[in-house]
Design a protein that fits this description.
Strand content: 25-35%
Structural class: alpha/beta
Strand order of the largest sheet: 5-9-8-6-10
Radius of gyration: 17 Å
Number of strands: 10
Shape: globular
Distance between the termini: 15 Å
Bound molecules: S-adenosyl-L-homocysteine
Length: 253
């Protein structure tokens, strides 16, 4: 049986999905709540990754070992790093890097020791589905179907996302982070705190993984304020709409 895990970082992002879950069954495991049920015709498990790489890795491992999920999809918010990635844009990950991994000089900076790589690629099919769902959702928002507040034209990007155990909340930090990654040949679009950990667990277990992040802030001096407003007002709607579309199109595959 196909069972898809939908992992959110924050409760605000999970609310909307939880409300739509049919025949919900709550199971508490490893200090976390896992919600089993049906969403848009798919067997799913909804869970919170919690915040940071280790917490997210624990949740992902539990989803695979205990709940036998066959795919993991992550929905969350992130800080925009690359110049054109603005608040309200959506980034679909093509791959992940851990920006705080540094075992140099034993291993090159950013390389995962004993993995022989720095980047972890997402599943092509799943991430194409998320990309399409995100484009359709934004087009609908722009056309005024889902919102009354005149939203400026937002874009969907696809590329590298950097994860690490730090809320990046100063322009100087975000510039330094982007420069350091770039000097190793990595152009990151956005920064967050969980994706690369889930990607690594999924790589270990051979479970297809994809992630979509809505940009809540620019990882600059304003980040904490922008983040809080965005999470309260927009994150849940986006998570619900994009994941809903992706699950429905998975049914037709
Ligand atoms: N105390 C806050 C903590 C949020 S941490 C709260 O719960 O209200 C920020 C979360 O959003 C993390 O899950 C991270 O993945 C993502 N995120 C958004 N903007 C970020 C940024 N600028 N830097 C790092 N992570 C960011």
């Amino acid at each position: 049986m196909t069972r898809i895990a939908v992992l959110s970082a924050l409760a605000e992002e999970q609310h909307g999905l939880l409300a739509l879950l049919r025949q919900p069954q709550e199971i508490r495991h490893a200090g976390r709540d896992f919600w089993l049920g049906e969403l848009h015709g798919q067997h799913v498990v909804l869970a919170l990754s919690r915040i940071g790489k280790v917490a997210a890795a624990t949740t992902a491992t539990a989803l695979i070992e205990r709940f036998h999920v066959t795919r993991i999809v992550f929905t969350g918010v992130a800080g925009g790093l690359a110049p054109g990635v603005q608040v309200g844009d959506v980034v679909v990950a093509s791959s992940f890097v851990q920006h705080d991994m540094d075992a140099s000089p034993i291993f090159p900076r950013y390389e995962l020791p004993l993995y022989g790589r720095s980047l972890m690629a997402c599943d092509e099919t799943l991430s194409a589905l998320l990309f399409e769902a995100a484009c359709n959702h934004l087009a609908r928002v722009e056309a005024g179907f889902d919102t009354q507040d005149g939203v400026a034209a937002h874009r969907v990007h696809r590329g590298l996302i950097a994860s690490g155990d730090r809320f990046v909340s100063a322009a100087a930090q975000s510039t330094a982070l982007r420069r350091a990654l770039r000097s190793a040949g990595h152009e990151a679009l956005a920064v967050e705190m969980e994706g690369a950990a889930v990607a690594q667990v999924c790589l270990d277990y051979g479970v297809p993984f994809a992630a979509v992040r809505t940009i809540s802030d620019r990882a600059d001096d304003q980040a904490h304020l922008d983040f809080a407003t965005f999470v309260r007002e927009v994150a849940s709607r986006y998570a619900c709409a994009i994941i809903g579309r992706a699950l429905r199109s998975l049914l037709n595959k």
